[in-house]
Amino acid sequence: MRNSHEIDYKIFGNDIQVLEIELDPNETVIAEAGAMVYMEDGIDFQTKMGDGSNPSQGFLGKLVSAGARMITGESLFMTHFTHRGYGKSRVAFSAPYPGTILPIDLRDIPTRSLIAQKDAFLAAALGTKVSIHFNQRFGSGLFGGEGFILQRLEGDGLAFLHAGGTIVEKHLNNETLRVDTGCVVAFEEGIDFSIQQAGGLKSMIFGGEGLFLATLRGTGRVWLQSMPVKKLIEALMPRGQNANKEGGFFSSFME
Questions:
Q1: Spatial contact of 44 and 146, defined as CB atoms under 8 Å apart
Q2: Residue 215's CB: how many other CB atoms inside 10 A?
Q3: pLDDT in tens, 187-233
């Protein structure tokens, strides 16, 4: 038997997508605070500390879990949407910036556990555990676009991630893949994630690919995004500010 609620869903749109969850009576979906777009009659929502994956967890445990979410930069609370009426009812969510919504059935992952960047989680069926995952490699935390702290999603139901731009799924079979540090959305636990220097000194400064690259090695699935939110912000900045930013780094380096 599943521990997670069995929810149905539809995804609308292309560049700015909306996730619509269909709930049967007493089914619940959890989501990031502020992600809701609309909800139909019969849907009741409550803001709670924690993901609700462990109903017997006491207040102190919920407080610790909520504090861990604050470390990742997420809200202290999560919103629980439950269908309290009859028949079917729907609630919809969207992410705070343009991109693609990625549905993942955690039953399809051998370990039923997924590692994701800290701002990728959008929503999931009740019963999904959302916790922090510390990157054991110091260099990955110090220089990686994903940071030292990632998120771990565990369970046997549907979870939904959001990524900037287009999502690319890669299947590694004891292989190595090097990508821009900010382009990693999620990966299975069979994948080793580390950060390496991007070539020689000249390539690092003038190559335009950044100082470091993420190295993903092992067997399992990896999900990448074409437009990380940081790149989107930089692209929207006035040209002069971008130039000053790059020039400032180069000048300080030369000094």
A1: no
A2: 17
A3: 998 899 887 766 555 544 554 555 678 889 999 999 999 988 776 66
Burial of 45 (0-12, 13-18, 19+ CB in 10 A): middle
Write down the residue that tokens 């731009």 correspond to. Answer: 165
Q: What is the mean pLDDT of residues 13-22?
A: 93
Domain membership of residue 2 (yes or no) is no
The answer to the question of residue 142 being in a domain is yes
In a domain, 1, yes or no: no
Look up the domain containing 244 and give its range.
8-254
Over residues 148-201, the pLDDT tens digits come to: 578 899 999 999 999 999 999 999 999 999 998 889 999 998 899 887 766 555
The DSSP letter of residue 233 is H
What's the CATH number where 62 sits?
Answer: 3.60.160.10
Task: Give the Cα separation of 234 and 65 in Å (integer).
Answer: 33
Contact 100, 161 (CB under 8 A): no
Question: Do 21 and 79 meet the contact criterion of CB atoms below 8 Å apart?
Answer: no
Within the chain, strands assigned E span 8-12, 18-23, 28-32, 36-39, 43-48, 78-83, 89-93, 100-105, 113-116, 121-125, 129-134, 149-154, 158-163, 167-180, 184-188, 191-197, 212-225
Predicted TM-score (pTM) of this structure: 0.80
The domain total for the chain is 1
